[in-house]
Amino acid sequence: MTDLNSMPRTSNKPVRGAQSxxxxxxxxxxxxxxxxxxxAILTLYLDISRNNNEMAKTNAQIENGRFAIxxxxxxxxxxxxxxxxxxxxxxLTLTTAPADVPNAVPAPCQAYTSWTAVDKANLLGIPVQxxxxxxxxxxSVVTNKKANTDVLLVRHAENCVANxxxxxxxxxxxxxxxxxxxxxxxxxxxxxxxxxxxHQRATPAxxxxxxxxxxxxxxxxxxxxxxxxxxxxxxxxxxxGIPTLMRSQFDLxxxxxxxQTAEPLIEGVEGFRVELxxxxxxxxxxxxxxxxxxxxxxxxxxxxxxxxxxGAPDGVFVRCTTAAPCTAVQLTNTxxxxxxxxxRSLETTPGYTxxxxxxxxxxTLGPFNDGYKRHVFSTTVRLTNISGRRETP
Length: 393
Prior knowledge:
Blueprint: H1 24-77, H2 117-125, E1 128-131, E2 151-157, E3 175-179, E4 196-200, E5 221-232, E6 244-253, E7 256-259, E8 263-267, E9 269-278, E10 296-298, E11 303-305, H3 328-332, E12 334-344, E13 358-360, E14 363-365, E15 374-382, H4 384-390
Antiparallel strand pairs: 1-2, 2-5, 3-4, 3-5, 5-6, 6-7, 6-8, 9-12, 10-11, 12-15, 13-14
């Protein structure tokens, strides 16, 4: 007897659930599509990465430019600040001819030990100086200066009181400025009523009674500030080609008070121009003359001094050069400063060529025809401490 269940079955219908693979053509098409998608994603990634890199370089360039301008502008804003002291030639209450009109441009890098009383009066009366080359006597301070850039010097008393909040503690041997509030003080600490002193900090026993902190007439001491800015042609290693904003500060080192070796501040600052606004005319249009007593247009109401400046720059701004250095008269009457800095990116941009020319005041730089992107930053700073003293009704 035949078992029907054990007999082989035949059928032309495919077995339900069976799988079939890709054909070679289908596989090649899918691989091609995958490669195209991957190429598109990779291109997108590279574009985003490149754009992010360029954005980072641009942001760094802008930040460096703004920081450089802000740093020097803030310093200039304090230029000529001497606490409560007012030079005689800027004191409109003085009834006699002033005796402290600056008669020479101060030597920027002269050590304190060689300062005379005249030198001190000159550097207080001329708090801002500018040059197109390393100043005389400063070759050990202004080193490797980038060609065709300027040098800026700013002086003032520290805007915070020594030993006060957020201010450096006073230290023996450092130079401090102190206003006299007494009529009978003697050198070397004060020079008379409403005078001043520049002195190296000593022990309290070495001070006169009026300068004694226990005295009701004691005046604050403020560190003497003198900052010199210039552009060096390298950043870390000579020849690295990264122009850098430098600053030399007047301070105590190895027992000597003088301008110290400059320190790097901001990389990528390639161009630097300084122009001075000179207050050469009174508000009546007459030329200033500080060798005479104040001549008031209205002596009764003390308005419009005809031989004193009015605190506003007159005419075009002036650039101090080796061929035409600024005089003591010009620097004494400087009431505003224009700053220009040309900042470049720290890395080149592939496929980019800088064919632009850049205007920095009275001069033009470029085109450089290289792969660095550049931008000019500028500002005009009013020397409030000087111009404010000259404003009258």
